[in-house]
Amino acid sequence: MAAKTPRILLIAASPMGVSFLTERLRGLACEIHFASSCNEAITFVSNHQFDLVLGEFALRDDSSSALAALLVGSSATLVYSYPVENGCWWLPAVKNGRSCWGSLAMRHREFVGFLKKLDASYPADTAIKVILDNHSAHVSKETNTWLAAQRQGRFSFVFTPKHGSWLNLVEGFFSKMARSVLRRIRVASKAELKRRIIAYLDDLNREPVVHTWSYKITVPA
């Protein structure tokens, strides 16, 4: 029996965007369809089954949530691409039909967008507590203005102490990786550095260990 040809939907608003996303699929035998917006993609997804929906992060809008909701329960994966120097970041929204969180919040409007997504995902009477660091987007005027317009008690922020990276588990992981495989090495390119990091992650994942971190205090702050 011949292998099934993957059906992929690309969401891009310009020829440059189409070219960028198509380049990511080079060498993959697949059936590609195109949409110019998330709203147009909803029409495609409503009438056809796709294995992968790949869109530009810049095109995320109010219809993005509806698109993700249509794919939940299917076998499809929805991923947004965010171009960076020499490549891009991939931000999943739905993976194999299951909703997942993936958010890039480097600027205040992106962080406010993330908060709006949280707000829409929980019942209106739920108090949402967010633990975060002191990134400028988290304390910007725009963020505080949006928070001030929400129901009192809906959101509360708990900031990790400045210079307290040890409270962030991923910072400890990065530190261990740097000390274990990156210290005092020389690489010829970013691609080589990436290969070394991925090899380290693959090695760890061969025998994964679950670590449960807890911090107990007698009197809440």
Topology (SSEs and partners):
Elements: E1 7-11, H1 15-24, E2 31-35, H2 38-47, E3 52-56, H3 64-71, E4 77-84, E5 87-95, E6 98-99, H4 108-121, E7 128-132, H5 141-148, E8 155-159, H6 169-182, H7 190-206
Parallel strand pairs: 1-2, 1-3, 3-4, 7-8
Antiparallel strand pairs: 4-5, 5-6
Helix pairs in contact: 2-3
Structure, explained:
Helices cover 37% and strands 20% of the residues. The protein has 221 residues and is of the alpha/beta class. It folds into 2 domains: 1-103, Rossmann fold (3-Layer(aba) Sandwich); 105-159, no CATH class. The longest helix is centred in the C-terminal third of the chain and has 17 residues, at 190-206. The termini are far apart.
Which outline best applies? globular
What are the secondary-structure elements, in order, as H or E?
EHEHEHEEEHEHEHH
CATH class of the largest domain: Alpha Beta
Domains, number: 2
Quantity of strands, as a count = 8
Overall helicity: 25-40%
Whole-number radius of gyration? 21 Å
Q: What's the CATH architecture of the largest domain? A: 3-Layer(aba) Sandwich
Distance between the amino and carboxyl termini: 62 Å
Assigned CATH superfamily of the largest domain:
Response regulator
| Percentage of residues in strands | 15-25%
Largest sheet: 6 strands, mixed
Q: Main traits of this protein?
A:
221 residues; alpha/beta; Rossmann fold; 2 domains; 6-stranded mixed sheet; two-stranded parallel sheet; 37% helix; globular
Short description:
By secondary structure, the protein is α/β, with parallel strands linked by helices. It is built from seven helices and eight strands; from the N terminus they run βαβαβαβββαβαβαα. It has helices at 15-24, 38-47, 64-71, 108-121, 141-148, 169-182, 190-206, and strands at residues 7-11, 31-35, 52-56, 77-84, 87-95, 98-99, 128-132, 155-159.
